[in-house]
Amino acid sequence: MYRILLVDDEILVRDAIRENIDWKAMDCELVGDCDNGKAAAEFVQNHPVDIVLTDILMPYMDGMELSRFLHDNYPDIVIVIFSGFGEFEYAKKAIQYGVSEYMLKPVTAMELRNVIGKMKEKVDQQRKEKEKLERLTQTSENYQKNAIVIRSRALQGFVDNIKTRQESLEELAALGIDLEAACYRVAVFDLDLYSDGSQLTAEKRQESALMSFVLFNISDEIISKEKAGVAYQAGNNKVGALFMGNRTREFEHKIMEICRTIQDKLKELMSLDISIGVGSWARTQQELRASHELAEKAIEYRYLLGGSLLIDMKEQPEEKNLSIKAYVEKLAAALKAGKKEDAGHILEQISSEIKEARVDKSRACVYLQQIIRAADETCEDMVPDNRLFSKREALLQQVTEQNSFDSAVELVRNHIGEIFQTLSDANSSSGQRQARLALDYIQKNYMDPDLSLNSICSYLNISTSYFSTIFKDLTGETFTEVLIRTRMEKAKELLENTTMKNYEIAEKVGFADPHYFGISFKKMTGCTPTEYAREKRK
């Protein structure tokens, strides 16, 4: 049986969902319904729930705040959001808080049944993984009780300011650790291979825990040897380091050297890469916690900058506002002009600007989404019936699921490449057809002395510059060259097979001036019309 909680401030919506779903047939039970997020948060604290269906806009606590609360405190609960508001920002926040599905109102009973079916599968998978983890945890209970874990928890509590300074110092002193120092700096070490914990299987999470223990041992050995501080096992299989000493340039250099040594040692022994963030200097408990938060933030830059990072947050520029509107407009112009290389350069510029701005993953994805939509709209303006856009929503989802910004950009780059190919195929097909129409038009109207580049472009309803390009691509000649050659071929036929006068033939093939006809004929054939006729009529 799957326990479902419904949260929506509109009673009519709650009644409709409650009455239009055969919960028992789906092996589900609607254990409760709430009219706001606050009531829902209180409900899950007192009742077991597997799936939460929630609206976004509600009083007291909205759907985003509820999702965040559930993500932080009840990670096993599967969340489905439905709302009449389809803004991308909402969807990105939903992804950030682990929301499994985002549905736009109005939601039909069939849509909801399908989504609940998928969520049941997710609950089943989570239950299986939880059982595996419980078995793994059971076998490692002795490890959890050892001195290293107790010590690490005490150090983590000191850094996070959970207890008073004096309480923490006394607790650590009982463990044989002296933390009296003039200044502190917190560093956080994280294994790159296991950075996306939400995507790891139970076995991989266990493997991550073991590798984290190896990282702790290496870090503890090197930091202790240098008498620079202490290492401890932090949450999410990360390793923390509390550096202690005087705030001098020499000690700052020493901290960075120690971090580089830890990176090199782990690479040498385990062939694993780690990213390291070093927080700010701290004297008070509050500053110590801030130092830890900065070190954690440095690790988040891994999405933008890639792995094997070593970032001193004291030297990092603050996150700045960024607008890519001008770049997007240039990209659209490059697409319209068929300048693929220019588009590639522009995308690289945008990528560099986003990295330099040090934005978080959510904002980076918003920027990439802007690029995708602008490129699609440009293509749609030029090729309205193209099917490329049917893949857009799936592409947007794939972009947000990437573990690195570079891999997300690569998806965008490939999509733009597909657009160029689509436009090229369309232009090629359309251009060849128009060029052939022009050849046919010349054959039928060469005798018109007023036939010109402008008149044929007016007939085809295209610009003279575009026509000249496609026509030359197809024929290898200009419009004027083809027109004169056509007229001369027709003149030759008349000179060979008729007794018409030269001025009559000139008029017949579109020359208003017989004298100019004679000059053009001799230039092309090397002889006058009279000489040509005499030679051919022998």
From TrEMBL:
Entry superkingdom: Bacteria
**What InterPro entries is this protein classified in?**
CdaR_GGDEF, CheY-like_superfamily, Homeodomain-like_sf, HptR, HTH_AraC, Sig_transdc_resp-reg_receiver
Q: What is its main location?
A: cytoplasm
Q: Which GO terms describe its biological process?
A: phosphorelay signal transduction system
Q: Which PROSITE patterns match?
A: HTH_ARAC_FAMILY_2 (PS01124), RESPONSE_REGULATORY (PS50110)
Keywords, in A-Z order: Coiled coil, Cytoplasm, DNA-binding, Phosphoprotein, Transcription, Transcription regulation, Two-component regulatory system
Q: Where in the cell is it found?
A: Cytoplasm
Q: Which CDD domains match?
A: REC_YesN-like
Per its UniProt record, what SMART domains does this chain match?
A: HTH_ARAC, REC
The Gene Ontology CC terms held by the record are: cytoplasm
Q: Which residues carry this modification: 4-aspartylphosphate?
A: D55
Give a yes or no for keyword Methyltransferase in this entry: no
Q: Per the database entry, which stretches of residues form a coiled coil?
A: 109-146
**Domain called HTH araC/xylS-type: residue spans:** 436-535
Which residue range or ranges hold the Response regulatory domain? 3-120
> Which SUPFAM superfamilies does this one have?
CheY-like, Homeodomain-like
Which GO-annotated molecular functions does the record name?
DNA-binding transcription factor activity; sequence-specific DNA binding
Q: PANTHER family in the record, alphabetically?
A: HISTIDINE KINASE-RELATED, TRANSCRIPTIONAL REGULATORY PROTEIN HPTR
Chain's role? May play the central regulatory role in sporulation. It may be an element of the effector pathway responsible for the activation of sporulation genes in response to nutritional stress. Spo0A may act in concert with spo0H (a sigma factor) to control the expression of some genes that are critical to the sporulation process.
The identity of this protein, by name, is Stage 0 sporulation protein A homolog
